[in-house]
Specification:
It is a single chain. 20% of the residues lie in helices and 35% in strands. It is of the alpha+beta class and 341 residues long. The longest helix is centred in the middle third of the chain and has 13 residues. The radius of gyration is 22 Å and the shape is globular.
């Protein structure tokens, strides 16, 4: 490719939701991210918790409007030809802050330039600009083809954000379903999947089994989905701890390409956690454990920005004694591991 050009593409991405150890909820969002020169553009913007305007939960008409806007088939929504590239994942309000850029045509090419952090109608690229990012020049054909595919439904963000919960403890399942719904993930409770129409099964992205569900019933559920031609992720519940189960389900619902994730590895053994991240990002580690009376305990054991590479983080022995688990979380992904002894 000629010097001065960047490649443009799109890929599914996720803003990981979850139930945090302090009881707060973090909303789950599926969206399409911009891939520039083979890497998510979001990764170049420090440790930003944000989503693109191409999210799965916006109404179809607004989604189409966003795509056509990026194709410059409509007027820029902000002064000076600026467009929102990433916004608040909770409310999408400009007052919360957004990354904006000037998008313009130069012949057949599309150019993204002057990236800035913006909190009101007018941006200040000098004071709040991302001076090390861009400008990017994209070939028009590649740019239009990628975005046009969204209008055809070929690359639209996934909408299968429902989970089928199958377990023996009804009270726990009810709490888990409520937590999932609170962060934007649909959840249904069932004894099995027998007799459920194929069209209904296609609405699920994952099936979560409780520990008391035997192998025979698990296989029956799998056969029901296979016979309906539906591929889903299966989650084997690690423990009756709602935030932990939510984290497992969040990981199962992640449809982003593995090579484009920030958090790619988690190992928990010998009183420490081993992590691998592909670009600088904030990582939060939470340890969950069951005591001898089967009571659940949660401890935040690390919260900080890690550079790209592998890291080893020591864990307080009191937080991981007995039956324990570690959850690693970034803005875009979640990993869960059982503490090995």
């Amino acid at each position: 490719m000629s010097a001065g050009y960047a490649t443009f593409g799109l890929a599914p991405a996720m803003r990981a939701g979850g139930v945090l150890s302090n009881g707060d909820y973090q909303i789950h969002r599926d969206f399409v991210d911009f891939i520039v020169d083979g890497r998510p553009l979001l990764f170049q913007l420090s440790d930003l918790d944000a989503v693109s305007p191409l999210a799965s939960d916006v109404p179809p008409a607004i989604f189409t409007e966003q795509v056509r806007s990026l194709l410059l088939e409509a007027r820029a929504p902000l002064p000076d030809g600026r467009y929102v590239v990433y916004g608040c994942p909770e409310c999408a309000d400009l007052a919360c802050g957004a990354v904006t850029a000037v998008i313009e045509r130069d012949g057949e090419d599309f150019i993204w330039r002057d990236f800035a952090w913006q909190t009101d109608e007018h941006a200040d690229p000098v004071r709040n600009g991302y001076h090390g990012i861009g400008p990017f020049r994209f070939r028009g054909e590649q740019y239009r083809e990628a975005l046009a595919a969204l209008l055809d439904g070929e690359s639209a963000p996934g909408t299968r954000r429902r989970v089928l919960l199958i377990g023996a403890r009804v009270a726990l399942l009810a709490k888990l379903a409520a937590a999932l719904r609170a962060i934007g993930i649909g959840a249904d409770i069932a004894h099995d999947a027998h007799g459920v129409p194929a069209d209904e099964l296609r609405g699920y992205g994952a099936v979560a089994f409780g520990r008391a569900i035997g192998q025979e019933r698990r296989e029956e559920v799998r056969r029901c989905f296979e016979q309906a031609g539906v591929e889903v992720a299966y989650v084997e519940g690690l423990a009756p701890i709602v935030p932990l189960l939510v984290a497992q389900i969040e990981h199962a619902l992640d449809r982003s390409p593995v090579e484009q994730r920030r958090l790619t590895r988690l190992v928990a053994a010998g009183g420490e956690a081993g992590l691998e991240v592909t670009s600088p990002c904030r990582v939060r580690l939470t340890a969950y454990r069951l005591d001898r009376l089967y009571r659940a305990h949660a401890h935040d054991v690390f919260d900080g920005v890690l550079e790209a590479g592998r890291h080893r983080i020591a864990l307080d022995a009191r937080t991981v004694r007995g039956q324990s688990f570690v959850v690693a979380r970034t803005a875009g992904s979640v990993l869960v591991e059982t503490m090995a002894r």
